[in-house]
Amino acid sequence: MINPKLTIAIIGGLAMVLLVEPSAQAQQDNQLIPQMSEKNQARDPKQPTRRMHVSKPVQTHTSKQTAATRAAMAQATKPEIVKKPHQLILQVNSNEPAMMNLTLNNATNVAQYYRDLGEPVSIEIVTFGPGLHMLRDDTSPVKPRIEVLAMSNPEISFKACGNTQENMRKAENKDINLIPQATVVKSGVVRVMELQEQGWSYVKP
Length: 205
Hints:
The chain has helices spanning 4-43, 62-77, 97-117, 143-152, 162-172, 188-197, and strands spanning 86-92, 121-127, 156-161, 182-185, 201-203. The chain is an alpha/beta fold. The protein is elongated, with a radius of gyration of 55 Å.
């Protein structure tokens, strides 16, 4: 005959085993759930993730200032247009002091006019025949004036006809010295012609 107390003890022990195992299993399941959740989150690329929002810088007048700066630099580096110089020939072939002074007046006025405009000008006074006396060191009636004029007006030059100078040397049987401001050319008439062919303006007093 089975002892009733033993039977009760066996049944009680089995009951305890049945109660403990579900609790332990539940704890293990609870530990696995977070791990699986982390793995699933890593595997699923569609899982939304939080990203830091980077705010765009507020645009100011920098673009306008940059455009203005570029325009200023372009203007500064833009090559300056060089204006073509004005070119004038004045002929003197007379030994009259009034004619020589008129020529000097015209040359001075033209030089000053373009100087005020800031435009370049070149003026040549070409002498030949009796007009060579204008540039002779011993006979020039305007020698002092030419000295002053040449110092203040470098755009004005003086040309003396070499043919006339040689003819005067033969006629007077002596060297014909010229003022320092004069430059000898082979022929005064040819000089006038060649300058005209180059586009120079020609004025005869």
